[in-house]
Structures are given as structure tokens and as C-alpha cells.
Amino acid sequence: MEHAIGDGKRRVAEALWRVVARDGMTGVSVRTVAAEGGVKGGTVQHYFPSRAQMVHYAMEMLADQFTQRITAMPRTGPTYEWTRAFLLELLPLTAERQREFRVWLAFTTHADTNPALTELKHSFSTQLGAMYQRILRARRAASHGMDEGLHHEVNPSDDSEAAVLQAVIDGLSLQLADLDPDEAAGLGPLLLDHYLAKPDADPTEVDR
Which helix (H) or strand (E) segment is 170 a member of? Predict the structure, then answer.
């Protein structure tokens, strides 16, 4: 029974994503989501008594899906390669990831109208910030010939460096999301590599 409920809620959330991708947040209602998901409005309301609960669940599920995808990525091979792969995974380089980014952007813009969504938005941003710090520390450790798994030194500039990296990824994402997927897939890695090659972009000084 619990599994069936979980599957039903996921189906509704995925339908909501499609509505947001096509019509924006203003297009989200019990009726439109039910029609998109091929279920009755009563079914949607059974899972989510309010629109706000439905939106919160869909936003949380999208964040979880992204987190699971990143967590599953291998951390093997040269540090500079797997950390670069992580950063590339954050960019909307395929049609599916472009849709995912646009839906997340719509959620975060809408979050300002709902304290629960604002909290979720900030929680995910904090999680991303921590990941950027881990990437920077891994690259710094590798630049000194150390095992990143054993090198946990905290640098006073970690917060600011992570904030800059996050801003770069956010900016690239905004630019790439509106391109043809093939163009985004070609341009994204070039722009990221250009940033990583800048003397002031990476504290490790290993990409130059």
C-alpha cells in the first residue's frame, strides 16, 4: 500500500514538472496536473490536499533526484577529471537537463511566496555549496600530491571560492538552458574549461 502511494505521488509530481516546463508555475492546478498525469482530480487531492503541498513535494523530489544522480557519480581516476565531470553534470547540457533546470528555476522563483519552499531552496543551496567546497578541497589536495580522501584542511577562502564557483555554474546554466541541446553540449564544456584555466578561478593552480 505504501509503495503504491509512493508511486502515485511520484506520478503526480512528474506530471507537475511537465506542466511547469510547458506553462510555468501559473499553469499548475489540480485540474492541469491531473490531466497531464492521466488521473482524476480527486486522486491528486487524495495525495496532496493543497496545491502548496503538491508543489513542495514535486520540488523536493526534483532536488532528491538531482542529489541521487550526483551521489552516484564515480570518484575514481585523476581528481581533476572526476571533479570536472561533477561540474559538467551540474550544467544543462541535454534536453532533459535543460527542462530540469527550467523547472527548478521556476520552483526557486516561486519559493519566495512560500516559507516552506524558501526553506527547501536554501537547504538545497547549502548542500550545493558544501559540494563545491569538497570539489575545491579535492583539487587543492591533488595539486599537492595528497589523497583528497585524507586531506580535510579547511582553507579560510573556501566559502568565498565556493560562492564564486556556484555563481559561475549558475550563470553558465542560465546561458546554456536556452540553447539548442547540441549547441549546449558543445559550448558548456568549453566555457567551463575556460573558467577553470583562469589563474584566479581555481586555488589549486593545476589547470594551467
Answer: helix 158-176
